[in-house]
Amino acid sequence: MRILLIDDEPIALTKLELMLTNVGNCDSAASGVAATERFVKALGDDQPYDLITIDIELPDITGLDLLNRFCLLEKKNGIAPAKKIMVTAHSNVDYVVKARGKCDAFVVKPLRKGTLLEKINELFPPERRPS
What we know:
alpha/beta; five-stranded parallel sheet; 5 helices; 5 strands; 19% strand
């Protein structure tokens, strides 16, 4: 499984990588620009991501705007959408409403490995998980 992790906090990215190292191959990005570059490159290489975690608050773009950008790029390129998990330090209902229909799950920081893996297992049952 190909995974793109997006968070502007280096410690949060490292923590995500450690949590998901046994789930798939992880790439990381600390900004919306870097994330978009990785996403577009993956599309161009015909190796799109299966799972993307997106921090709600990034320095150069909101996570919601980045989510919308990825959804538009997937639609424009005619590829199956990646599963997307929004990561936030806030449990704000507005984020959930704005992301409805575009993301597949929300997790609240501080991240707990069990919670994150549970969400991933719901989205990708182990017997049907991409290799």
